[in-house]
Amino acid sequence: RASTKPISQVTCTAPVNIAVIKYWGKRDEQLVLPINPSLSVTLSQDQLCTRTTVAASVDFKRDRIWLNGQEQSIDTPRLQKCLGEIRRLARKRKHEEERSGDLLGCCVHICSENNFPTAAGLASSAAGYACLVQSLARLFGIDGDVSHIARQGSGSACRSMYGGFVEWTMGRAEDGSDSVAKQVAPAEHWPELRVLVVVVNAGKKAVGSTEGMQTTVRTSALVAYRAEHVVPSRQDDMKRAVLDRDFQAFGEITMRDSNQFHATCLDTYPPIFYLNETSKQIIHLVHRYNRHHGKVKAAYTFDAGPNAVLYLLQDDVPEVLALLKHFFPANANNDSERTFVRGLPDV
Ligand code: 2P0
């Protein structure tokens, strides 16, 4: 039956972010509060991103969600948390915004698509929850920062709420209200910076981040040491490197932080291995390349999967791409270790 009642609808896109100071471990599982601050670079809107449409109508009987065309359960704790928090804020502001009041009684339909492999360690949950929370906030007419809500969908999602260079503060408040994302500098601050995403394996990762970091926090002494004694000063050094556009410092800290994150995975019991042989070959290649030039010209970082992300400056992109293509020729016949290179012209 065709409805005559109006549907309110909002579409947003949110890009992936790639951390240069890694988040790994929570001090509060429910509120998603991290054991250390982190810092990332948000890619540009037209690259790896999620597109989400949310619609509200009095004709909708229940909340529903589709991911990449497949309907999924809406009854997951994190989705419910985000929906609940948005509706709570909307109710609070109802007297200010007539439209949000109208929609409050409506159910929502959510349709979300990624233009890149989901759950392959390419920050799909970050872009996904950032996009979901942003779209719902617009639908319900909520202004201001809602990164604390995105954080409760997926920790790293709060950083995708802003462009450019973004920090996620640890915060001190018990309710998590000050554990939020803040822009350190916009993307235009460092226009020569480039990102290459080297997809080593587009399959689903073996150990999910949420579960992996729980085991790490429970079993690794190294991760506690890292959070207390390494990351706080490293975060400051990284912010300075970004503000000074100091690629030497930026690149070295990025590689050291990726390496230490993967060291905490190895220190987890039983150990977690996200890097594979191709990842390690890329690490060696980058160090050989940098040694050859006598300075840091490219920096790798790896998240919860074997795919490499390389940070470099614009002028060096052709040379590094040529090197990658030479040492890792595309081989479409080998599904498990399909190696291809994707260049991202803009950060
Ligand atoms: C990061 N990662 O800072 C780190 C580096 C993976 C390695 O944030 O449990 O998907 O949803 O808060 O945000 C992945 O963790 O985990 C992640 P939850 P999330 O980008």
TrEMBL record:
Residues 14-181 form the Diphosphomevalonate decarboxylase-like N-terminal domain. SUPFAM superfamilies: GHMP Kinase, C-terminal domain, Ribosomal protein S5 domain 2-like. It catalyses: (R)-5-diphosphomevalonate + ATP = isopentenyl diphosphate + ADP + phosphate + CO2. It holds the Pfam family MVD-like_N. One of its GO terms (molecular function) is ATP binding. Residues 195-347 form the Mvd1 C-terminal domain. InterPro entries: GHMP_kinase_C_sf, Mev_decarb, Mev_diP_decarb, MVD-like_N, Mvd1_C, Ribosomal_Su5_D2-typ_SF, Ribsml_uS5_D2-typ_fold_subgr. Pathway: Steroid biosynthesis; cholesterol biosynthesis. Catalyzes the ATP dependent decarboxylation of (R)-5-diphosphomevalonate to form isopentenyl diphosphate (IPP). Functions in the mevalonate (MVA) pathway leading to isopentenyl diphosphate (IPP), a key precursor for the biosynthesis of isoprenoids and sterol synthesis. Belongs to the diphosphomevalonate decarboxylase family. NCBIfam families: mevDPdecarb. This is Diphosphomevalonate decarboxylase. It comes from Branchiostoma belcheri.
